[in-house]
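The aim of this short unit is practical: by the end, you should be able to scan a pair of folded records and say something sensible about each. We start with the first protein, listed as its amino acid sequence and then its C-alpha cells.
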Amino acid sequence: MLEVENLHVFYGEIHALKGVTLTVGKGEIVTLLGNNGAGKTTALKTLSGLLPARAGQVRLEGRTLLKVPPHEVVMRGIAHVPEGRRIFNRLTVLENLEMGAYARADAGIEQDLERVFTTFPRLKERRAQVAGTLSGGEQQMLAIGRALMAAPRILLLDEPSMGLAPILVEQILETIQGINRQGTTILLVEQNAAMALSIAHRGYVLETGTIVLSGSAGDLRENPEVRRAYLGES
C-alpha cells in the first residue's frame, strides 16, 4: 500500500534520513521505533508532504507522493497526527473536527463525525468547548479524531502517548487498535516501544536516520538489541 524506497532527507546540511526503505501493507499497524533524533518525525513529515526529499521514492498504491503538496496528500488518503497534537486551540472541539474534513465534499462527513464521537464519547460531551481548555488526553483524542475526519486510508501517528498518564496511554492504545480493526492502516511512531510492539504487526528500528532492524513485532520484542535499548531489559 505505502512504499518508501531509499529515502534521503536533509535539514540544510544535516543528513536526517539516509536511504530509508520501508513498506506498510493494507490493514497493518507498522511501528517505527528509535531514540530522540533518530529521524522518526522527519520520516512522517516527509510522507505527509511537509518536508521535501532530496532523493528516493514514496508511493501510495503505486502513485508517487514526492513533490505532492500536503493538502493533496490528505486528499489521496494519508492523514497525519503530529507530535504535540497541534490542535486549533481557539476553535471549539466541533470546529476542529470540521477542519479535519476541509478537503471533503462527500455525503459521509456527518457519518464520520458520529464515528469519531462514538470512538471518543468525551469529545461529544465537549463538542462546544474551546479546544485549548481540554486536558492533554482529551487534546490527543481530538487530534486523532480530526485526522479521522479526513477519512484516511493510512493514519500517521507521531508519539500519541507523549505526556499522558498511564491509564490514558492504555485508552489510546485500545483506540488505535479499534481504528485499525475498522479498516484504517496505521504507521505508528512511538517512544514507548513496549506499547507500540504490543499492538503492531511489524516494526522498523531507526537509528541516526538509518533503518538498522526490521521484522515482525514478536521478533523485535525478542531481539536482544531491542530489549536492551528500547525495552529496558538486559
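Turning to the second protein, read its sequence before its C-alpha cells, just as you did above.
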Amino acid sequence: MKILITGAGGMVGRALVAHASAQGDEVFAHERATLDITQAQAVREVFARERPEAVVNCAAWTDVDGCELNPERALLINAEAVEILAAESRLAGASFVTISTDYVFDGRKEGFYTQRDDPAPESAYGIAKLQGERRAQRASARTVVVRTGWIFGVGGRNFLATVVERARRGEHLKAISDAYGTPTYAPHLAARLRELAARDLPGTFHVVNGGEGTSFLEFAREAARAAGVEDVEIESVSMDSLSRPAPRPRNSRLRCLLSEAIGFAPLPDWREALRDFAKVEGEG
C-alpha cells in the first residue's frame, strides 16, 4: 500500500511510519518542514507527485491551552487543513484517515462515550477538532475519523508519556485524581490507523486501549510500578486546582461500537500497554 503520513515527526506519526514500513508499505512521511498542510497548493503538489492510495493525518496542534488563546490558528491547523487533505485524498482516489480527540465531548457523562453520544466540545481545541471531523467527512465520503485520547509513547511530551522517565528519576510528581480517560499506547493506535486505512471503511471509530479507564493519578501509580519504582512521591491534586486557560472534560473515557462488530480485535488493556512502554523506555 502506498501510504502518505502527515505529522510524521510526532509521537503517533513516528509510530505509524515504523509500523507501516514494517508491513511493507511504500511510505511517504511528511513533517511540517516537507509539507505545510495549511497550504492547499503544497498539498496538491505532494499528492500529484506521490499518488498515495491511503492518507493518514497525524498532524495537529495539540496544545490545548495554546488553542484556547489562539482559536483562529487552532481552526486553521485542526479543521481547515484537515479539509484540504480530505479533498485532495478524494481527488487522488485515496482513503483518508484523520485523528480526532476525546475533547469533542464535554465530560459530563458517566461511563464511556460512544459514537451514539453527541459531541459538545467546550474548548477551542475540541471545537476545532470537531470542525475537522465534519469538514473532512463533507470533503470526502471515504473519510475515517479516529477519536482517541490520553496517548502515551516514546518521544511524547505530555504527562502520560513522560511519567515513567520522571518516576525513574525520583521526581516529585503531581497527578490529577478526579479526571478520567482511556489511555492509548501510540504503537497500538498506529497499528489500528494503518488497519483502518487498508480496510477503507468510512465512519467514526473510537480507538483506545482496553480496560475501564483510569485517572491521571492511578496511571502515574501504575507507571511507577511498571518502571519498578515503588518509593516515588505522587501528590494528588484536583482538576479545578489547576489554573489553565482551556476547560478539560472531567470524564473522556471512550468505547467503540463498531470495531469488534466489523472484526477488529480489541486493543490490549492499558496496563499491559503501559508495561510494554516502560520496558521500551528502560531500554532507551
